[in-house]
Amino acid sequence: MLEAITLTLELAITVTILLLLIGTPIAWWLARSKSWWKEVVGTLVSLPLVLPPTVLGFYLLLALGPNSLLGRSIASVIGHTLPFTFAGLVVASIIYSLPFMVQPVRNAFEAIGERPLEVASTLRASPLDCFFSVVLPLARPGLITGTILSFAHTVGEFGVVLMIGGNIPGETKVLSIAIYDYVETLEWNKAHILAGGMLVFSFLVIFSTTTIEKRLRRRMQ
Amino acid sequence: MSRTLTDQPEMITASFKGLQGAFELDASFRLSASGVTALFGPSGCGKTSVLRCIAGLNQMKEGYFSLKGEVWQDGESFLPAHKRPVGYVFQEASLFPHLSVEQNLIYGQKRSRSAPAPDQTVLNQADVVELLGIGPLLRRSPNKLSGGERQRVAIGRALLSRPRILLMDEPMAALDRFSKNEILPYLERLHDELKIPMLYVSHDITEVERLADQMVLMEMGKVKAAGSLQTLLSDPSLSLSSMPEAASVLTGTLTAMDDAFGISTIVVSGQRFQIPGVKGPIGRSVRLRIEASDVALSRHMPEGTSSILNTPSVTIETIQSFGQHMTNVFLGLGEDLDRQTLIARISRKSLHALDLRVGDRLQAMIKSVSMVRDV
Questions:
Q1: Which CATH number covers residue A66?
Q2: Is residue B364 part of a domain?
């Protein structure tokens, strides 16, 4: 049971950090670009919000498996294919949780508007300097929301994990799979502990997100 | 276009041409790079666009800009905004909400350390804080400040970034009357104490008359005229003299003070003016504003005593009627080189009754003169 919990946390932390690094530039581009195909990209990023996780998992399994070009080239670099490994879970989770990072961060970037960037540039801040000294601090509420939501969403996922990760203890057997397992094998007590824990965790996530965001917004107005 | 304007060492040379949405800007001017230059015109005439082009925030299809011989933009070459040594004050103060007042102040200063400022004294934080009276605000958060206080901090922030030119986009437009009166004296101090040239966008002529030395008059994306404030205000061919609040601005020297009545004597182009409430050392220069509708004309010196203190002798330079019933009479005050122009607004009926002609010598009777500021 403990193994499933640590594995889940490990996965969620890795995915959240990577999502901050990948999602922030995507959100910035979506917020600032004037190109016509940005909404196409925006839609692709948001797809996991409506797609059944099994659909996403199915395609990822095909794309990353040994029968696809992508899967084979990844295997030739790292020595094995991604499905049914921890790394495979990370990749799938990043794609699956991407909208939960990109959406709030993009909204926060858009809310900043043009003016603070212009002010920074008349005060000799280069675009990169401005991004770190003005944009990121002003977008903090959105970044915090995105971080919490991505983390929580990764902790709670089931369908994608089942499709691409399977059920290997210590490698891909995360919390939600473990709960499913306990129920299947009629170990109700253990299922209760994990499920109850998840319930409390989820409540705390949503509650803290809303309060933190509210406080930050009030401070900046 | 750019090639026809050659650089000159102590000049601002600007030329911008291009479309911005449906708006066409085609503005060129060259003026002395000193004192305050007002960009004046009705809302939507392109004043702000010109300022933004100078700051590098907008890029027009064709553009040229140089400051004291240093070219920032010419055809394809374009110095990006963050490399231009400007201090820009936006209409709304736009302080960074995530930084304290003090952190806002030093934001630009930190980033402009390397910039040389050869011909002007470098302002340090203490000077700026003193100049703008913002000492008590330093530790506060920008959202705890009043509109006027915010704008003063924004001006300070711009000054500390070692600008070689200050660009102000209607810094008082978003303020109420009260905050305006609070901030004007600070702007006048800037004018008097700093050597940095300032471009000041405004659609309020009284603000311009108080602050500006030069003026760029704009209309529908084009420059109608550019030159000294006095010249433009008294130019019959421009629309300024037909505004309801048309006035002339005169420069004079304080020569005597009468303490009993609090009346000071100011000599303007050799003529003595008596004005209440002007103080200061004898010999200082002051700027006077006389509204055109406060000036009456007479062929003779009024007999006996009257309440009117100022009755200078003048010569008619131009007569211009506008509307159906009114006339502006442009009057020369003083001789030759020292000549300044006074505008009188009289009815067409009076013009006819007095049979006024260009070249006539008259007495002007001035009901009220206000001192605008020191020069």
A1: 1.10.3720.10
A2: yes
Domain assignment present for B229: yes
Quick: pLDDT tens for A90-129: 999 999 999 999 999 999 999 999 999 999 999 999 999 9
Contact B223, B29 (CB under 8 A): yes
Identify the CATH number of the domain in which residue B355 sits.
2.40.50.100
Would you put residue A104 in left (φ > 0), alpha (ψ -120 to 50) or beta? alpha
Instruction: State residue B323's pLDDT score.
Output: 80
Would you say B132 and B152 are in contact if contact means Cβ atoms under 8 Å apart? yes
Q: Average model confidence (pLDDT) for chain A?
A: 91
First to last CA, chain B: 35
Contact B143 A138 (CB under 8 A): no
Contacts of A114 in chain B (CB under 8 A): none
DSSP letter (8 states) at residue B292? G
The domain of B75 spans: 2-233
User: Is A111 inside any structural domain?
Assistant: yes
Question: Helix H segments across chain A?
Answer: 2-32, 38-46, 53-64, 69-78, 86-112, 115-122, 127-130, 136-138, 140-156, 159-164, 175-184, 188-220
CA distance B198 to B86: 10
pLDDT at res. B1: 42
Residue B238 belongs to some domain of the structure = no
Is the Cβ of A136 closer than 8 Å to some Cβ of chain B?
Answer: no
Question: Could you tell me if B298 and B205 lie in one domain?
Answer: no
Condensed to tens digits (0 to 9), the pLDDT of residues A189-209 reads: 999 999 999 899 889 988 988
* 3-state helix/strand/coil string of A30-57: HHHCCCCCHHHHHHHHHHHHCCCHHHHH
Among the partner residues B83, B90, B141, nearest to A119 by beta-carbon distance? B90
Chain B residue with the nearest C-alpha to that of A141: B98
Which residues from A are below 8 Å from B142, CB to CB?
none
> Which of the listed residues B233, B266, B292 is the one where a domain comes to its end?
B233
Collect all residues of chain A within an 8 Å Cβ-Cβ radius of residue B84: 122
| 3-state secondary structure at position B277 | coil
Do B222 and B343 fall into the same domain? no
Q: Quickly count: other Cβ atoms within 10 Å of residue B373's Cβ.
A: 16
Pair B218, B260 in one domain: no
Instruction: Report the residue from A123, A140, A219 with minimal CB separation from B107.
Output: A123
Which residues of chain B are modeled with pLDDT < 70? 1-8, 114-122, 304, 374-375
Amino acid of residue A76: S
Domain housing A213 = 2-30+51-220
- State how far residue A16 is from chain B, nearest Cα, in angstroms: 25
Could you tell me which residues are beta bridge partners of residue B13? B30, B66
Residue B189 to chain A, least CA–CA distance (Å): 22
Tokens of A137: 């601090």
Query: What ipTM does this complex have?
Result: 0.85
Q: Please state the rounded mean pLDDT for residues A46-68.
A: 91
